Each structure stands twice: as structure tokens, then as C-alpha cells.
Amino acid sequence: MALPPQFLEELRSRLSVSEVVMKRMRLQRAGREFKAPCPFHNEKTPSFYVNDQKNFFHCFGCGAHGDQIGFVMRHDNLSFMEAVEHLAGEAGLQVPQASPQERQQYERQKSLYDLVERATKYYERELYGPSGRNALDYLRRRGLDDAGIARFRLGYAPQEGGPLKALLADAGYSEADMVEVGLFKRAEAGRPVRNFFWNRAMFPVTDRRGQVVAFGGRVLEGDGPKYINSAENPLFHKGNLLYGMSRARQAAADGQRLIVTEGYMDVISCVQAGFEGAVAPLGTAMTETQIQVLWKLAPEGQRNPILCFDGDNAGRRAAQRAVERVLPILVPDATVRIAFMPDKEDPDSLIRSGGPEAFSAILDRALSLEDFIWEMVRQGEDPKTADGRLRIETGINQMMEKVADKAVQYSYRSVLREKLRAAIRAGGGGFGGGGFAPGAGRPRRQMPGDVPVSRLWDNRFRSGTLRTEPRRRERYLLLAVIHHPDLFQDIGEVLAGAEFGDAELEALRQALVACLTAESALDAEALKRHLSGRGFYETLDSLLSADAPKFAQPGASFEAAKSGWQEVWLSSEDGLLQRELRDAERRFAETFSEDDLAKLRALQRELLILRGHVDNLTELDG
């Protein structure tokens, strides 16, 4: 009988693994875990461990592994339902009773599992028969011996489907059953069913429990797709499963890294080379569900699977599409890494030519998610120019808006903006481009690393349009767009992601973004009418009557307005650093720790570089 997942979760939450095990044997505390001699094989040195945080037991001697239910099944020699009923009694829970329909569905599913298992054994036997010689030769050319073939349960589907059909019919299965699980397909009316797989090397696909639910077939000769997979059926939903998933689950529990490759042979080569955590999607690109399944396979703190791609342009585009699917589902303590294969290599070929060491070196160089995003948004842009920086920040905002979890979004956005600031520092400080050079016309001067933030801004500008007062900068940003709505095409993403400190101007900013997003063809006068009609007449009147620099006035050219807007926007980086610096000063005043002092001085130096007091860290430290 199938039990509701919610019931099983409640059962596991009420009884920890150690609590269940301690009722049957003695455990000794070992840090955060418990250990003991394994009850499932004879040993003198304890190799049996229980981890309540990860909710499993594991023996490093015999490989026994499982949760509370699995331990009771194995230790007390009970069936799954017997173990559940026993533990439910201990936990004070009532086991849900199945309806007649649920019992019927459960029995039907058991029958289909048996049908697919019989087909798997048939394909395994045929591989070593006379008709399977080509398939066997192919597998051996790919580096598989008999032990490897048996381990992955590889087989051969012969040209004729009659023997398999007869075998299954003798076991009591109907043609409808065989069609339902995808082994056969219906032909034209009045003609018998035809086998779905023929003259193909067969790769069984298992679910997370290791039960075969589908097949992948590799053509050996003739026309047709190189690989075909079973059609979706009651046991198999390819967007929810991964090839090698049951083995990878155990490998992840043992601390091995999860690796996503492209195909069946990639997984097999990886596993034979010692990379037991290798999996592959089933003929399609990775789905959001498969990514979430990967995270669930790994223990807490290790949810960072490596996605492998070809090193050419097509592989990089595939990596970008994968990342764009990952971003909306990102959660704390879960991410991905990206690895690119050498030119014209895949994991299978790389392992066969260079050995496990060559593949391991590629995995060790895998990019973190934030590093890959940074490469994406920076590609072709020069952070030394105002326009380049604006485009990079626009790219960061576009990518981060895809992240639904606000805490995760904030964390990644902070890291990516720090990378942008580091790129600016590496470029020699200042904003550059557009004729804007902080501190131009006055000599550079070295300043100590512990100057209070209140003294840093005094000499930033003695004249010009940019001032320290945030509300003034916010007014200029709004005015430039109000007088030049065409700017929104270039700076709309950045303005939409901003957050003004002045409540009145923040409300106007939101209305402005909404207007130009809905109607991008508005001219300046039409935009003003829209904003006035939305209740911003007084705010707009006050804004338009105030003094403004030339770039934020109606008569400015588009290029002048764009250049001025970029310069004002980039100056807001200074304000962000000031806030971070004030926080760092407060922390250091409370702790007086070396770490907090180091962070404080690093921020002070970063602000000096950004403001043009020094060109780089070398000059500052000199």
C-alpha cells in the first residue's frame, strides 16, 4: 500500500534514527554522531554510524545504509509496512488506511514493476546470445568488461519482439500492459503490436530506490535516432528522474560530489573511474525538478552539484540556459557549479584518454554559480568605462530578478556587485569614460588606512553637479528620464531595481517605471501628464522647478543626458560603501577584534580608490 509522504515525514520527525537504533543496540557518542559495531556483519572496530542531522545510519564496513524504517526492516526482519506499523505504534501515530482504489493502484504498480524487471532480465540474457554479438562488441569497445556490464544491467533488444512478448504473456501480462510501460507500441488497426526497442544496446533506467522503470536504447546500425528512451508511463516521468540516481544518492551520503553529465556512457565511465555520484538527464536538458532532486540527494552543506558542459560555444549556451533554470528555484544552502570539458571531449572520452586524474582536474576547476554569472554579464563589457559598468550592473539586475528567494537574491547581488567594484579597482580606480574623472585637476594624495568616513568626502567635489546629498542625486536621476523618456530603453532595468531613500521620490520612481514599462513610446509631455494624473502633480512641480545640471534639463542632447545619468548612478556606489563602512565601524567599536578591524580598513581603502584619492592598492600601501 502506498502511504502519504506527509505521514512518513511525520513519523521520521517524531522518532530520530538514534532513538530507534538505541532501543535495539548500544550506541556511543562520537561528536555529532553515534557509533557502534555494525549489527549486520561481524567486526571488532566500530564502523556503524548514526547521524540524526542527516537522518540516516551507515556502515563503512558492509555498506548498510538507510533511515529509521530501513533499520527496523533490516534489524527486525520486517517488511516495509510491518516496520512502519511498528514505528507508528512507538510514535503514537495511526497508520492511514488505504481506500479500495489506492490498494488497487498499489497492486497495479507492483505488477508493472515486475513486468519491467522481467524485460530487463530478458535483455540481459539476449546480450550474450547469438543475436547480441554486435551489442556486446560495442560495449566492450567502450571499455566495459563483463563485471561492468552486469553492474549496470546492460542488455540487448533483438530485431524480433515475439520472444519477449511471449515471455511476458506466459507470466500473465496482456498486450495492454506491455504497451502501457512502453515496451511495445500499437500499430495500424487490425495489426499486432510492435516492439518499441529493436537492435539496440539497452540501458535500464532506475528510480531513486533502484527499481527499473524505463530504458534507453542505443542504435547499433541502420537509420534512426542514436538514442531513444521509453515513453512516459505510470512508473516513469523522465523530467523527474536522472540516470544513475539511486547510486548517486548513496555516493552523496558518503561525501562524494554529485556530477551531471550528458549521457549514459558518460555516467558509466565516471562510475567505473570512481566518480560514483555521476548522473545524467534522460535525453532532455536538465529540468527544474531534476535540479531540486539533486539537492535532495545531497546531505546538508553539500548541495552544490557540478553541471558538466562541452567547452564550445554550444556548450556555453547550454550552461547559460541551465543557470537561468536554476535561478528561480535557488534556496539557501543550495547552488550549482559549472564545469567545461576540453575541446572535443566529454567525460567518457576524457577519462578514457587521460584517466580519472584528468577528469578530476576539470571538476576541481568548476566555476561557482556567482563566478559563472559574473562571466556572463561581463562578457564584452569594459568596467573601466561608465557605459560598460552600467551594462554590467544591468546584467546583474536582470539575472538577480529571476531569483525568487529574496535573501538569496540579496546575497548573490552583493557578491556580484563586489566583483564589479573589484573590476573597477583593477582598472585603476575612478569612473572613466564620458569625460568624468574624480579628482581631476588636483594632485593625488596618500591617506592613512584608518581615516574616519566623515572626513573622506570633504574633497570629493568642490564644484560640479554631483554632491553627497542622496536626495539631490535621486532628483537628477528622475529629471533626466522625465525630460528624456527614451533613456528608459538603456537604463530602465537599473532604475527599476533601484530603491530611493526619499519616500516621496521613491513613490515617483515606481510610478515612472510603471508608466514607461507599460507605454515605452511616451514623449516627455505625455509622461508628465501621466504622472500628474496619478497624483504626482505637486511632487512633479517641485521637481521641475528646482535647479538641475545641464544633462537633466530639457535642452540636453540624448548622449549628454545618458552620460550624466550614468555618472550620477555610478556615484551611488559610493553611498553603498559608506553604509557598509558605517556598519563596519559600529561592529569594530563593539568587538575591537582583528577580523573586524581588517574589514573596516579594507572598506576604507576601497572607498579611497573609488573616490580617486589613489589609483590602486599598491599606491595606497606604498
Explain what this protein looks like in three dimensions.
The chain is an alpha+beta fold and 622 residues long. It has four domains: 87 residues, Alpha-Beta Complex (DNA Primase, Chain A), CATH 3.90.580; 130 residues, DNA primase, catalytic core, N-terminal domain (DNA primase DNAg catalytic core, N-terminal domain, Alpha-Beta Complex); 129 residues, 3-Layer(aba) Sandwich (Dna Topoisomerase Vi A Subunit, Chain: A, domain 2), CATH 3.40.1360; 158 residues, DNAb Helicase, Chain A, CATH 1.10.860.10. It is built from 25 helices and 16 strands. The protein has a five-stranded antiparallel sheet. A five-stranded mixed sheet has the order 13-12-14-15-16, with helices on both faces. Helix 13 links the parallel strand 14 and strand 15. Helix 16 packs across helix 23 and helix 21 runs antiparallel to helix 22. It is globular and about 90 Å long. The C terminus is likely disordered.
What labels would you give this structure?
5-stranded mixed beta sheet; DNA primase DNAg catalytic core, N-terminal domain; 52% helix; Dna Topoisomerase Vi A Subunit, Chain: A, domain 2; 622 residues; alpha+beta; 25 helices; disordered C terminus; 5-stranded antiparallel beta sheet; DNA Primase, Chain A
